[in-house]
Every structure is written in structure tokens, then in C-alpha cells.
Amino acid sequence: MKFTVTMKKNYEFRRLYARGASAAAPYLVLYARKTGKGTNRLGITVSTKVGKAVVRNRVRRRIREIYRLHEQELLSGIQLVIVARKRAAAASYSQLEQSFMRVCEKLSLLKTEGENA
Questions:
Q1: For the sheet containing 4-6, what is the strand order?
Q2: What pTM did the predictor assign?
Q3: Does position 72 have pLDDT exceeding 60, yes or no?
Q4: How, if at all, do strands 40-46 and 28-34 pair?
């Protein structure tokens, strides 16, 4: 993840939940907010409701990889928190990827044709 810094502090997550825009899909909920800085900030949340540690880590790894592969298509200067829903445990990689792209499109986080950087 070249242009991304991870979010780890609880207050950062809470601030984004309160002030950010959100979009939901069957497997994910995405919270986003524009910061205006050059880098993106990413946080991934997978609750214990999703499953045991092995399942949660697999979902987290899949989401991180989906983000990494599509990082170039996203606008820069945004904060993102991706919350995995309970159904994400049984979802395939392609279903998670489609959900991620759908919620990014809903929140207008994807670059348009003429945009660089």
C-alpha cells in the first residue's frame, strides 16, 4: 500500500464514524471522509461476530489485498474505515471485491477518466 497509512487509534475510528459518510453493501460497510492530505488513511474492522480469529484474519487479509489492488483507482487524501459484516466470513474473494467497488462508487471515491495522481 504505497500511498496509505493505517489507522490504529480508537479516537480516529470514532471521529470517522461520527463525521464521515457511509455506504453499505451485503458484506461491507465503508465510512469515508476527505482530509485534503496527500496520503490515504485506512482502517479495517472485523468484529468477533464474524467468527473466530482465523476467520477474522482471513477476512481482514482479503480486504487489505482488495484495497491494495485498487488503491490506484481511489482518490487521494481520504480516510477510510472498512467494517466487515457477518456475511463476509462466507463470502468469496470476488464477492468482497464487488462489494468494495460498489461502496466506493456510491461514495464517489473512484477517480474519473481525466484525473491523475
A1: 4-6, 40-46, 78-84, 28-34, 21-24
A2: 0.90
A3: yes
A4: unpaired
